[in-house]
Amino acid sequence: MSDLRQRFFIEDSPVRGEVVHLEHTLTTILAQRDYAPAIKVLLGEMLSATALLASTLKIKGRISLQIQASGTLKWAMAECNHLGEVRALAEYEPDARFNQADDSSTVLKSLVKPVLFINIEPEVGQRYQGVVPLEHDTLAECLMQYYDLSAQIATRIILASNEQRSGGLLIQLLPRNSEEEQQRVDEDLWPRLTMLTSTLKAEELTDLSATDILYRLYNEEEVRLPEAEQLKFGCTCSKERCATALEQIGVAGVRETLEHQNPIEISCQFCNTSYTFSAEEALGLFGQHLS
Questions:
Q1: pTM of the full predicted structure?
Q2: Which residues face 155 on adjacent strands?
Q3: What is the distance between the alpha carbons of residues 172 and 26, in angstroms, rounded to a whole number?
Q4: Spatial CB neighbours of 152, under 8 Å, sequence gap ≥ 6
C-alpha cells in the first residue's frame, strides 16, 4: 500500500475530508531508533495526524505536533510540510508499560502534566502555536477538542497505527459563505456522515486503501476525489544547519568541544546522518584559525 493523502469532497455540500496512509515511510522513520511498541503506535498516529492537518492549511510551510510532559515520556513530535514530507521523533525513559502495550492510550495515560502543541510555521508570515490540553484517552479526541473549541470547525478525526502501517481520516463541516447559506442544505448530512465515520474500525483504516475506505463509509453520497498526493520521509538537516548550531554556541564553546572531540561530529536524531567539522572548518566559521 502506498504512502499517500487522498482528499475528498461531498458534492454540493460544505463537507471536505482527507484519508492518509503511511507504510514504507512509517517503517523508515521507526527504524531510526529502537522504540517500544506503544511509542511506535503513538508516533504512527502523530504522523498521520500531522499529514491530515497539513492538508487543511493553504500555505507553504510546515505543521508539527509536539507532546511535552513530565514522567517517563519526555516528549514526542511529528511534522509534515506542504511537500508531503514527514518526520517524527520521541524521547523517553524505559518503561515496562510501553513494551507490554500496543496502543497509544497507554502512553497518554502515563503522562504527567502533558501539553500538546500545534505549531504552524509558514515559509512567509507569522508563526502560530496552539496549545491543546491532553485531557482525553486518544490523540484523535484531543485534536477534535482543539477544532471544536479553538478553530470552531465541526471536525471528526480517526487515527490508527501499528508497527507496519498507520492511517488517519479527517472530515470537516466548513463554514458556509453568504451565497451558500441561501442554498438548500441537507440538514441530516453532517449527523449522517459523523455516524458513518464512527463505524470505521482501526484495522480498516490501516489495511484498506483510501478509495475502499471512502466507498465503505460513504457509498450512498456523491464523493469527489481529486488526485491523491504522495507522502514521504523527509529530513531538514544539513551541514549548513549544523554550522549555524556551532555558531550559536560561540567560538569559546567550539574550542572547548574540540578539546574533547576533534573533528566535531554532529548527528541528526531524525535520520542518523552525521556531519563532520574539522578544527579548521569549525573555527573558520568565526574567522579564526588553529593556534
A1: 0.88
A2: 172
A3: 25
A4: none
Burial state string for 12-22 with b = 16 or more CB within 10 A and e = fewer than 16: ebbbbbbbbbb
> Any bridge partners for residue 68, and if so which?
75, 115
217 contacts 200 by C-beta, under 8 angstroms: yes
| pLDDT over 90 at 175, yes or no | no
Angle at CA of residue 72, ends 69 and 77, nearest 5°: 50
Query: Which grid coordinates belong to 239?
Result: 551541514
In angstroms, rounded to a whole number, what is the distance separating the alpha carbons of residues 201 and 83?
A: 29
The confidence band for 291, taking pLDDT boundaries of 50, 70 and 90, is low
Domains and CATH numbers, the chain: 4-233 (3.55.30.10), 239-284 (3.90.1280.10)
Q: Concatenate the DSSP letters of all residues of 209-275 into one string.
A: -HHHHHHHHHTTS-EE----EE-EE-----HHHHHHHHHHHHHHHHHHHHHH-SSEEEE-TTT--EE
**Would you give the end-to-end CA distance of the chain in angstroms?**
57
Give me the pLDDT at residue 67, please.
94
What was the pLDDT predicted at 180? 53
With 0-12 CB in 10 A as exposed, 13-18 as middle and 19+ as buried, what is 83?
middle
Beta strands 232-233 and 85-92, pairing class: parallel
